[in-house]
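Hey L., structure's done. Input below.
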Amino acid sequence: MLIDWFTVAAQVVNFLILVWLMKRFLYKPVLDAIDAREQRIARELVDAASKQAEAGKERDAFRQRNEAFDQQRAAQLQQVVREATAERQRLLDEARKAADALLAGRQQKLRDEAATLNRTIQQQTRREVFAIARKTLAELASTSMEASAATAFINRLQQLDPADRGRLADALAGAGEPAVVRSAFELPAAQRMAIQQALHELFASERPLHFDTADALIGGIELSANGQRVAWSIDAYLGSLEAEVDRLLRDSKPSPAGDDPTAGTAPA
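Output:
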């Protein structure tokens, strides 16, 4: 079999042309497209990695913000709880103090009312007792009692301390209204003379006395001269006792020793 070299050469040429054409118009565009696609994929991968890194950063920042917010919220919640607890305790303390003050005020008011009622009852009882005592003594008083009172009155004059005696002596010696002796009943002449004689002996007084009666005096005698007074009477003892009862009821300081209203001299 004979080989047609022209045909072989033509086929070789055709094949080379076909290879060049395929490389020129088929392989190269495909390879370029593949390269472009690979580059685009590489860029997208790089972008994706960058975005992923940014997303990671944002996720970490968000996580940190959430943690900080949670911590801040927990701290604020604790602060609110502490403030609410303190406010609750303050309100409870104020309410307790107000209740204690109200209770103390009511108790004090009850004590004051009870004390006032007790004082009223005691004072009313005291007034009734002394009124009955005075009325009874007034009804029982007689001329014989007044005669006996003259002796007691002279003893009172004799027992005056020097200061009171000196003031009474000056009053009897001084000019002015006459000295007056008062009693509930008219004194017999013997008692009048006894009193006049006692004044003369004790005070060297020749001044005449004016004798008078006073219903207010109960079983007693009173001498007054120029503003000075000496008295002895059952009513004076009752007054002294009444004053002492008043002092005890008021819980005041004890009266000074020697404040016996039945003794000594005092301004009329």
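Residues 252-268 have pLDDT under 50 and may be disordered. Residues 142-267 form one domain.

-- N.
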